[in-house]
Every structure is written in C-alpha cells, then in structure tokens.
Amino acid sequence: MTSRERVLTTFEHREPDRVPAWCGASPEFWEKAKRALGLEDEELRVRLGDDFRRVYAKYPESAEPLSPGAQSRTVFGVERHGYGYGQPTAHSLLHASLTQIEAYPWPDPSLVEVSHIRADAQAWGGQYAILGGDWSPFWHDVIDLLGMEPMLLAMYDTPEVVDAVFKHTVDYYAEVSRRIFEAAGDAIDIFFIGNDLGGQTGPLIGEGLFRRFVLPHIARLVNLGHDYGLKVMMHCCGGFAPLIPALIEVGLDGVHAVQPCCAGMALPELKAAFGDKIVFNGAIDSHHVLIEGTADFVREKTREALRIMMPGGGFIAGPSHDYVLEETPVENILALFDTVREAGVYC
C-alpha cells in the first residue's frame, strides 16, 4: 500500500497493511534530528516512515510594528509573548459590548494566498495522505480575545457576547478553508484542525457548555470538510474523553493526539468505547516514555499501544503530542517508528 492508501483505509476502520505512522515535531527537535542523522527534511520523514504530508496557505504579514515586549501577533490582532507560542499581552475584547464586537477589525480571509496549494500537494505524486485547510484554533482565539475566566462567566451572564466572538472567529477560518478547498480540495485528503479542550485532569469546559458554545462550530468545520469529500481530524490535547461522544455525534473522523497519561484517556477504555467510531492518532507518551524513557522502554510501550489499539484499524501511531520537544532523545523517536514498522503489521 502507499501511505495514502494506508491512511484512508484506516479512516474507514479497516485494517491496512500496517498501522500508519505520524510524526509532528518542534523545529528545535527536527533540526537536532537532521543533524544527528545527517538527513534533510524529506529524507528524515522517509526515515521515520511518516505517512502524512501537509500543505499550507500563505498568510499576509502585518505592516504594523509589534508593541514593546510582544513577540508575535495573531490573525485577530492579539499580541503574545513568552516561551514558544506565548501568552496574550492583553485581551482585546475583554468586557466588549456587541456593538464593539461587530466594529472590531476582523481579518479578511480573501487576503490569504491559496493558489500554490494544489501544486504543493501534487508534488508528492499521490504517495502520502495530504493534510490541509486552516488550523482553525477558534477556541484559543476566543480565550485570547475575551480571557479564559471572563469567557466562562460570560457564557452564563452574556451568552450573546460569547456567541458573537465565536461566530466571527469561525467565520474567518471557515472561509479561509473554503477558499483552500475550492483551489485544491481534490488534492487534499484530510482537513486538519486544532483546539485543545482538555487538561491533565479532564476537560477545560463542562459538557453542557461545550455542547452549547463550542460543538456547533466544530460541527460547522466538520461539515465543511465533508462537503469537499475530506476526512476531518482535530488535534486536541489532554483528558477530553467525556467530550468524545459529542465529537462523534457531529461526524468528526479522527482525534489527535491521544495522551494516555491524562485522566480518562486509558487506551483500553478508549478503544473499547470508541475504537470503531473515531480514529485515534498518537498514544505513545511524549513525556514519561519518549523524553524520560530508554529506547528499550519506548519499544516496549509502543508494542503495548499497538496491541491495544491496532485491531480492526482506526489507529494511527505516533507521539502523544504533535510537538516533539527538543529534549527528546533522537534514538527514542527512531525506536518508536522502527517498532511501528516492525510490530504494527496486520496479518
């Protein structure tokens, strides 16, 4: 099977030739791995056996200079600072009225460049499963704009304000992805979005509020992907198991990246309850196994995850996060993917 055939078979909950493999990594780890192995980008992906490739739109850069201390600015004008992606320096719509929300300078999706995406996707000759569409982290953007605690309180006190901010953010993302799919939808296989709804001990929002405020917008993006014949997979960190039934209800095809060390995310329970209904991607602990373990321990835990998750298809193996950190030993990542290739074969 080609990588693309392998992945699409898995999304149909049938058993391919072997379990597909996924590797997302931080730029720092990726550069370290390339140096250690003497490989270039595509050579490293092939060495790991990654069955996915990803295409990106090009987003306009703001001519407005950043404020002192800020390191970046989101598409919605929120400046951020701190380690990695950082944290917002201020919440632009904190205590805003509906009138102020409507007057806010929301970004223009027509400024996103998509004309190159078809050629980028076709450059791999149909060998790999192609991820595309806008990342669409609307949950995070609404938190940036309103503030986490004020947003949760407003869900009770002024729900129309929260609805308006969610609608504007998702309007933008949906239109960007629609433009991408109009330009290159037949060259893309999976609409990949990301919204982290879980923490170490469970969901960041209760199921009732999730269904009221968040799920309709996930459904909107899922329906958009399905309208163009795409599978839809969402990155979601943490212990979000109580929300999985709702995600299945709206037709989400896959979740990434399963973190078995979080509350409610034990692999046997997930497989038994939902394994025939939604694709699980991840499951190899990025922290306690990949960073802290030996290569032999990585091989052991990878085989364990495969034994639990691979029967019947519907499983993609990889780190339990899409951002393998720089401190992860390269030999441990090699152990993971070599074990998937050796032990993840369907008989």
Quick overview:
With 347 residues, the protein is α/β, with parallel strands linked by helices.
Question: How would you describe this protein?
Answer:
- This protein is of the alpha/beta class and 347 residues long.
- The protein has one domain: Alpha-Beta Barrel (TIM Barrel), CATH 3.20.20.210.
- Helices cover 43% and strands 13% of the residues.
- The chain contains 13 helices and twelve strands.
- It has helices at residues 3-11, 27-37, 41-48, 98-103, 117-122, 138-146, 148-157, 159-184, 207-227, 244-249, 267-274, 295-309, 330-343, and strands spanning 52-54, 72-73, 79-81, 87-88, 129-132, 190-194, 198-199, 202-203, 231-235, 254-258, 279-284, 315-319.
- A seven-stranded parallel sheet has the order 1-5-6-9-10-11-12. Strands 2-3-4 form a three-stranded antiparallel sheet, with no helix packed on it.
- The model has no long low-confidence stretch (mean pLDDT 97).
What is the fold's blueprint, element by element?
Blueprint: H1 3-11, H2 27-37, H3 41-48, E1 52-54, E2 72-73, E3 79-81, E4 87-88, H4 98-103, H5 117-122, E5 129-132, H6 138-146, H7 148-157, H8 159-184, E6 190-194, E7 198-199, E8 202-203, H9 207-227, E9 231-235, H10 244-249, E10 254-258, H11 267-274, E11 279-284, H12 295-309, E12 315-319, H13 330-343
Parallel strand pairs: 1-5, 5-6, 6-9, 9-10, 10-11, 11-12
Antiparallel strand pairs: 2-3, 3-4, 7-8
Helix pairs in contact: 6-7, 6-8, 7-8, 8-9, 12-13
